[in-house]
Specification:
Elements (H helix, E strand, L loop, with lengths): L6 H12 L65 E7 L3 E2 L9 E8 L18 H7 L3 H10 L7 H12 L19 H16 L2 H7 L10 E2 H12 L3 E6 L5 E12 L6 E4 L14 E2 L5 E2 L1
Parallel strand pairs: 2-9
Antiparallel strand pairs: 1-3, 1-6, 4-8, 5-6, 6-7
Helix pairs in contact: 6-7
Length: about 300
């Protein structure tokens, strides 16, 4: 997604971005890229926790990392069994709102099992259908505005898409169980945590900038090496990236899935870049792909 062009919006973007960066980490992408050059992402870093407003469990900083520990752990501080988190984005073919010509769109945050397979509609967390109403109830107006730009439905309403993503995937994240919130739990706190964390990670992973920085820009005529795209995104994020393509020959770039583990709970833990191999870690793209400009409606 392209950083905002006005100074006011750029500073707001920077404030949100910096809130997701661990103290002491350097060499991260500069959110004010429209004002100055960016530096590459530090691939040794993990993505900072955020301070939940929800009374989520306080977990130890030295706790186990999902999919990397076989010992028993407090279930509210250890994401299990869906400990491999995929932050998925897609390159939409259409411009939905003004200025979105350079926006990748958030698809979801998916908790895959440690072997790369996955469950869905698990019931570890309650289901919700009225995502917008829940976020409004918890004063998440700014988040709703951002989601309406970057987490949008090709068909149906955005609210329907968000409910689908939440009910299919978030219900498989054990640390979102109401019991993990203790006596202070009220329905919908887990909804806030899931969408704040998913969107915060998404804003850290500016796919458009990472590709542009590697000389890969949308073009009707050019083709690009899949290996070059893969390398650019993995160098940028530090994580394994799975690429998906559309078209008869699977040669039109469409999706990027960034792979992470979690150290601690989803609510307040760290996203740790994952580089291992696992079931389903291969994309479907041809060796040479097209990265097409968006078209207006």
């Amino acid at each position: 997604m392209a950083p905002p062009t006005s100074l006011r919006s750029a500073l707001a973007y920077a404030n949100n971005f910096v809130s997701q960066i661990p103290i002491g980490i350097s060499n991260l992408p500069n959110p004010l890229s429209s004002l100055s050059p960016q530096a590459p992402f530090n691939t040794d870093s993990s993505v900072t926790p955020y301070d939940p407003l929800t009374g989520a469990p306080s977990c130890p900083l030295d706790g186990p990392t999902s999919c990397n520990n076989n010992t028993d752990a407090d279930s509210c501080c250890f994401v299990y069994p869906g400990g491999r988190l995929l932050l998925t984005q897609f390159w939409d073919s259409k411009v939905h709102v003004g200025g979105s010509e350079e926006d990748w769109t958030l698809h979801g945050l998916w908790p895959d099992l440690c072997d790369g397979s996955y469950d869905q509609y698990c019931g570890m967390a309650p289901r919700f259908e009225n995502i917008t109403d829940v976020l409004k109830h918890y004063d998440q107006g700014d988040l709703i505005e951002d989601m309406n730009r970057y987490w949008i439905a090709n068909y149906g309403t955005n609210n329907h898409l968000w409910a689908h993503e939440y009910n299919k995937h978030a219900t498989c994240i054990n640390t979102l169980a109401p019991s993990c919130y203790g006596d202070g739990y009220t329905p919908g706190l887990e909804v806030v945590d899931y969408f704040v964390r998913a969107f915060g990670l998404f804003k850290m992973l500016d796919t458009y900038w990472a590709l542009t920085n590697a000389g890969i820009e949308p073009d009707y005529k050019k083709t690009y090496s899949l290996a070059k795209i893969q390398s650019a995104l993995e160098d940028f994020s530090g994580s394994r990236v799975i690429l998906k393509c559309t078209g008869r020959h699977h040669n039109v770039l469409h999706e990027a899935w960034y792979v992470y583990f979690v150290k601690g709970s989803l609510q307040s833990g760290e996203f740790v870049p994952a580089r291992d191999t696992f079931k389903g870690d291969e994309g479907n793209c041809a060796p040479e792909v097209r990265y097409l400009p968006k078209r207006h409606k």
